[in-house]
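Narrative progress, year one. The postdoctoral researcher (J.K.) led the effort to move from monomer predictions toward full complexes, under supervision of the PI. The following entry was the first complex the group processed end to end, covering 462 residues in total.
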Amino acid sequence: MNTENPFSELFQKQKANQFKIGNTTYKERIAKLKRLQDALENTYKQDIREALFQDFKKPFLETDLTEIYPVIDEIKFAISNLKSWLKPEKVATPVSLLGSSSFIVNEPKGVCLIISPWNYPINLTFAPLVSAIVGGNTAILKPSEMTPNTSKLMAKIVSELFDENEIALVEGEVETSEALLELPFNHIFFTGSPAVGKIVMKAASKNLTSVTLELGGKSPTIIDDSSNLEKTVKKIVYGKFTNAGQTCIAPDYVLLQESLKPEFVALFKQEVNTFYSENPESSDSYSRIVNSKHFERLTKALEDAKIKGSIVESGGDFNVSDCYIEPTLVSNLPEDTTLMQEEIFGPILPLKTYKTIEEAVAYVNANKKPLALYIFSKNKKTIDYIIENTRAGSTCVNHILLQFLNHNLPFGGSNNSGIGKSHGVFGFREFTNQRSVLKQHTISAVDLLIPPYTNWKKKLVN
Ligand code: NAD
């Protein structure tokens, strides 16, 4: 191992401590989770709201709902289930192995690395940490440099709650991630873009480190003519413009039955107006784009669409001084536009129409497997047809984002949108190794089948 690595010492300290942490009881792990819960729910709640507001004007209530509450929920769910998850699972033993018993022991992976993105920094750093703690691991956390106020606050919280030999948070830019990725972690849990996911997986392969990759991509939303369009548009406007569209499972684009377009456009304008007023820039319920780099990326993509003949049906305003982009709806997009080629990750919604549901499904399947696929329809046959003939990390029917909130469901992507799952027991499994243990109690039939292979009948008699 490279001893010049700035994080070698920290890594070695956690490695030396891993069995102590791995052998903690479920009660000790619950105590740690409760400390984290108290910090998020009480001690640091207001500081978290303020840090995120400084980083990208995220509204306080949205911070409570999308950052603090989901981690508290993950903690509570883990506390109620941890004892049963940690219990060795007795499994059947075949007759040929008579005289023995078999168990699956969920042992800690060891020293883990959690790299998180900026868009939900509290949620996407601390929720995986909950799974790491439940699994009995030590962990180094590396949040994003793009939300510096929140990262700084998280560093303070972590250093107050935990000894660095067990859980440490390091702040830094890409070079920090790169240095960490050189180390032989036992597991890496990465949340971010597919492009960086590939870098993480390549680095992990050097040490054959297991990975969970929670990635992104273009999540389609298919709407057919049986859906209640008013309710549908309200939910889409909510799901798309929460966090100013900077949500991995936000609807990336809409596939709409052709005849519904005029009504959809009118309802879109109406709902944006209701949610954020006629001037969303003055609304205290609407976030900003995280930084000028992402602001520029999005305004360039909009410009590219306009040059190529697309129609801005609603919105389109922006203000560079505040990284503000109005909730925007664009139609008539040629396939070669940035908006149709890349994950948007901002408040611009492309609207594409289709004639038949088969055409919509074929369009989805011509692209990479999405993280989420949304369906708005009252027709069971259509819903089943879409689910059976597409592939996606998750699907929510007749609503948006809710699949993320059920801890009994695995959360994650498939291929380009991710590898592995998080939340509840699925997150716990990512941070543990399912170790097989077979205990032999009495003589086994297998003992008779050892060399020399001649005279085995005689051995049986004896
Ligand atoms: P990103 O991939 O640019 O960065 C994520 C993390 O990786 C950050 O901590 C960053 O410092 C680090 N990083 C960046 N470049 C790196 C490099 N070359 N080598 C090593 N580390 C590097 O992602 P982002 O912009 O922070 O977040 C947006 C992306 O994350 C979107 O694609 C979105 O869909 C995805 N996302 C996915 C989920 C999910 O749960 N599946 C959740 C949120 C965001």
